[in-house]
Amino acid sequence: MQLIDGHGRVATDLRVSLTDRCNLRCQYCMPAEGLDWLATDETLTDDELNRLIRIGVEMLGIRDVRFTGGEPLLRRSLPAIVAETKALPSQPRTAMTSNGLGLKHTAQALADAGLDRVNISLDTTDPATFEKITRRPRLHDVIDGLAAAHDAGLRPVKVNAVLLRGINDQEAPDLLRWCIKHEYELRIIEQMPLDAQHGWNREAMVTADETLALLREHVRLTPLDGRGSAPAEKFLVDDGPHTVGIIGSVTKPFCGDCNRVRLTADGQIMNCLFARTESDLRRPLRSGASDIEIAEQWMAAMTTKLPGHGIDDPSFLQLDRPMSAIGG
Ligand code: SAM
Ligand code: SF4
């Protein structure tokens, strides 16, 4: 059995949201006051999560599992969930996308549990700009978390950055130099219409081409081949060995090669970040469905996957469910 959609794409990369809660309030993601979080009984338990991950990996061909959120480190049982995933016979590759707060204290436990690598979100190395973007004065925690991930042997340590016009867009070259100095791999992601407050606008978005042009004023970038199903276009910086990735989610969509599927913290399958329909696996899970029945419902959820996100289409409508509640 496979998670194949109506356009022939096969999902092998599962993104698991462990919670919709977060301890930052990034402007491009959430409003200052936060959101109405899921109630405890709406959130999948560890056993339910582990069971769905097992079904995905053992029955449906999932090979990569990424833990995300909200902020995945807010889920205390994260190391145990990672260990349970890694103990599956096919040993899927495991990764985490996190804001890095508190990672200083958990990086080693996560590495010991079998986590392979991390993407840590960091948009600036300037404390004031960090506080402006995230609405919290926690830059030092992220920097410590990154160092701890590196010390724990998680490789590669990637840094995800979103550029906001007039706030940190001119910082891209500095951020790249900082990442290279610390042996982190920078990936710059175009801002997408996924914020809870629906404040995204196409004109304000810093495009991948703009970012590339700015970086090229400071460094020599040589395109690398072989993007595959990875969203980032990678470039060698000053002839290597360091690289930078640019993710033009809006202007250079990679939907045709998408191999991802998402499981939300409340047990919904989303076949795309922008999917307008969700498929509920929590109900069957809690009403005694067998593994095979759940696997069949999961496969059925893939059939409605659209060929592309359609952000540039005039009829595009932003979802009510924000990125933090889907699992970015
Ligand atoms: N809290 C974790 C973090 O920030 O890494 C994981 C969840 S967050 C939703 C996952 C990724 O989505 C982060 O790298 C974040 O920068 C990115 N993100 C959030 N909102 C975005 C948006 N509107 N456009 C593009 N990327 C966004
Ligand atoms: Fe939290 Fe991540 Fe959203 Fe920032 S991007 S508010 S860290 S979930």
Task: Throw out a few tags for this protein.
10 helices, 328 residues, two-stranded antiparallel ribbon, globular, alpha/beta, binds S-adenosylmethionine, binds iron/sulfur cluster, 12-stranded mixed β-sheet, TIM Barrel
Outline the secondary-structure elements.
Layout lengths: L2 E2 L5 E2 L1 E5 L28 H15 L3 E5 L9 H9 L6 E6 L4 H11 L3 E5 L5 H8 L4 H13 L5 E6 L9 H10 L3 E5 L18 H9 L4 E3 L9 E5 L5 E5 L12 E4 L4 E3 L8 E2 L1 H5 L4 H12 L20 H4 L2
Parallel strand pairs: 3-4, 3-12, 4-5, 5-6, 6-7, 7-8, 8-11
Antiparallel strand pairs: 1-2, 9-10, 10-11, 12-13, 13-14
Helix pairs in contact: 1-9, 2-3, 3-5
This protein binds S-adenosylmethionine (SAM) and iron/sulfur cluster (SF4).
Concise synopsis of the structure shown:
By secondary structure, this protein is α/β, with parallel strands linked by helices. Helix content is 29%, strand content 18%. The protein has a single domain, classed as TIM Barrel (Alpha-Beta Barrel), CATH 3.20.20.70.
